[in-house]
Amino acid sequence: MADPQEVLTQRVQSALGAAFGADYAETDPVIRPSQFADYQANAALALAKRVGRKPRDVAAEIVAHLDVADVCREVEISGPGFVNLTLREDWIAGRAQELRADDRLGTPRQEPRNIPIDYSAPNVAKEMHVGHLRTTVVGDALARTLEFLGHNVIRQNHIGDWGTPFGMLIEHLLEVGEDSADAALLKTDPNAFYQAARVKFDGDEEFAARSRGRVVALQGGDAETLRLWRDLIELSKAYFNRIYATLDVTLTDADLAGESTYNDMLGPICDELQAKGIAEVSEGALCVFLDGFTGREGKPVPLIVRKSDGGYGYGSTDLATIKYRTEELKADRIVYVIGAPQSLHLQMVYETARKADWLGDTEPVHVQIGNVLGTDGKILRTRSGAPIRLMALLDEAVERAAKVVAETRPDLDDAARAAIAREVGIGAVKYADLSISHDTEYIFDFDRMLALNGNTGPYLQYATARIRSIFRKGGLDPAEATGPVVVTEAAERALALRLLGFGAAVAQVGDTLEPHRLCAYLFDLAQSFTSFYESCPVLKAEDPSVRASRLALTAVTLDTLVKGLGLLGVTAPERM
RNA sequence: GCACCCGUAGCUCAGUGGAUAGAGCACCGGACUUCUAAUCCGAUGGUCGCAGGUUCGAAUCCUGCCGGGUGCGCCA
Asked: Motif 'HIGH' region at which residues (predicted)?
């Protein structure tokens, strides 16, 4: 057990039990980081009323029964009843030493749960936009993190591969030819393909009529139509996969679970809802009306499960995902990483599923993703007002990074510089998405995210590059830097203490589904390291035992930064 | 009208009911014959939107306002 907060919680709980009886042994001792010590226990203030004594007396009682001689160097009652706890340097060093031999770096292995994660979900024949970028990056980080914590993560890429636009798209594909340059646009610039189809649909009545007929054929299972439809999807998949490869995202074709996969479930779902009296026909459409969901002018808002033309919309497919994930995937928790604007819709889907008894004990969670804005505070667009092509945006990030690398590393060859620029550029974009709490809107700003200062990807990558440089320069292998760790200097102490918090930070991301907390931890760690780097020579340390200790601390820091960034889906180049 | 998100330093953002609310950027002042200065150290900077309430204690929880954003019947 390396996490001081966890260790102190147990110790203080024991003291509470010893002092006030077994009933109090479960009380949260409220261990928090302190500005007056390493940690403080705040339990005494809350307990004072319950035990009918003054807070300071309660604190004194806790301290009297507290057995922390091996962990703390100083225990002090302060203010109205805070218990300040200062850790022993040898204890910190010992725990840091243990991390050196722990490939999980202090991360707990949790009781495995089945967790489908719905994320990315681009549309076939449409450009992914920055909103997709964010759900993709955040969802992937959550998937990696939950997996590392020991869970059975099931990635679910709910692509938009079904619905009315496909009539139009198929007709257009048929006209231009499956092997044409126009069709190839699907792989590189899908919006161009979509727009071309759209223009024809809006301007050519005969084409529009054929498109509508094609939708019917598609839903009716017409073989030739299905073949063209699959073609469309194959071309789009090539585009998705190129984006995922560029982004270094873990999604593969095996994770595809698009809307079309639920086709067979939609009819029965509607029948069941109707049979159970949950859904009713209104204005020709099959709708679910739920208590407490009213729209404009107090009118009840429906969740439409079957349209008046007999087609199925996203209301029914989203219900199908719940049914499938609880019944087939045996989900304990379903994570939906989807835009914040869908909040109302998802609430209605969850509530409907609950009423239909499809949820059981499964907990659906909406990880709300805020909109991405430009520096002008409006939805991100190009200067001419068009939506930004995601690949172009990623290219620009890499280009900007390349410009910096060209200036700072003239000593490296072109290939090496290009590789660094790729990792830095992509890492910067991903980290920027992850470092801000996912539910708020965020302002997309290249200059800020590519900065080498502040809570940015490049800053963290730079810290790892400097560490690797130390080992390279010394001709040493980090794996062989085994210590022993001894903590004396303030910067060594701060760094070592920080290292002990990694596991707790990872666990917190798993609990709260908030990757930005891991970013905050890693940034803090990197800052602690750079301070250490400035004030504590490693290779040049004159005393061999000091050198060995610092090398071990440096190696643990490297492992932690690389592992932490890895959980976020960000790589760190060997040199920068 | 209803729902969700937001309002914290000039800007971008953190903040687990605990003491004097933090970080980065910007601005100002310092530190390079370096283990990568793409860095570090320091200073300045606050009516936590407003008003009540709960609490020993509120940026945090509750209620009501004000302001901004988004969504709300046949696209998904």
From this structure: 122-132
Q: What domains can be seen in chain A, in order of their start residue? A: 4-87 (3.30.1360.70), 165-250 (no CATH)
Nearest Cα to Cα of residue A137 among A352, A436, A469 = A436
Nearest to A240 by CA among A124, A78, A102: A124
State residue A328's pLDDT score.
Answer: 97
- Answer whether any strand B atom is within 7 A of the Cβ of A151: no
DSSP A415-446: HHHHHHHHHHHHHHHHHHHHHS-TTS-EE--H
**pLDDT tens-digit profile of A346-379?**
999 999 999 999 999 999 999 999 988 887 777 7
pLDDT of A539 reads 94
* Residue A313: CB less than 7 A from any atom in strand B: yes
- Quote the tokens at residue A502: 């990694």
What confidence score (pLDDT) does residue A454 get?
Answer: 92
CA of A45 to C1' of B50 (A): 31
Helix A181-188 crosses helix A190-203 at what angle (to 10 degrees)?
120
Nearest in space to A7 (alpha carbons), one of A100, A138, A98, A115: A98
Q: What is the DSSP string of A134-148?
A: HHHHHHHHHHHHHHH
Q: Which tens digit of pLDDT belongs to each residue from A472-493?
A: 999 999 999 997 999 999 999 9
pLDDT band at A286 (very low <50, low <70, confident <90, very high): very high
Inter-helix orientation angle A502-512/A516-535, to 10°: 160
Q: What is the pLDDT of residues A412-432, one digit of tens each?
A: 999 999 999 999 999 999 999
pLDDT value for A51: 87
Tokens of A535: 């004030």
> Could you give the C-alpha distances from A536 to A214, A488, A491, A498, A524, in angstroms and in order?
71, 11, 7, 16, 18
The integer distance in angstroms from the CA atom of A451 to the C1' atom of B44 is 23
Could you give the C-alpha distances from A38 to A196, A331, A488, A489, in angstroms and in order?
Answer: 63, 40, 16, 16
The count of C-alpha atoms lying within 13 angstroms of the C-alpha of A295, restricted to the half-sphere facing its C-beta, is 9
Name which residue leads in pLDDT, A87 or A385.
Answer: A87
Q: How many CB atoms lie within 10 A of CB A455?
A: 21
* Residues A548/A553/A554/A559 CA torsion (nearest 10 deg): 130
ipTM score assigned to the predicted complex: 0.96
Rounded CA gap, A461 and A571, in Å? 8
Protein CB footprint (7 Å) on chain B nucleotides: 1-6, 12-20, 22-26, 35-41, 56-57, 69-76
Please state, as a whole number, how many other Cβ atoms lie within 10 Å of the Cβ of residue A419: 15
Q: How far is the CA of A46 from the C1' of B57 (A)?
A: 10
Q: With a 7 Å cutoff on the CB, does A314 touch strand B?
A: yes
Nearest to A316 by CA among A162, A444, A180, A539: A162
The answer to whether A449 touches A379, Cβ cutoff 8 Å, is: no
Predicted local confidence at residue A219, as pLDDT: 83
- The whole-angstrom separation of Cα A465 and Cα A11 is 39
Give the nearest nucleotide to A284, CA to C1': B74
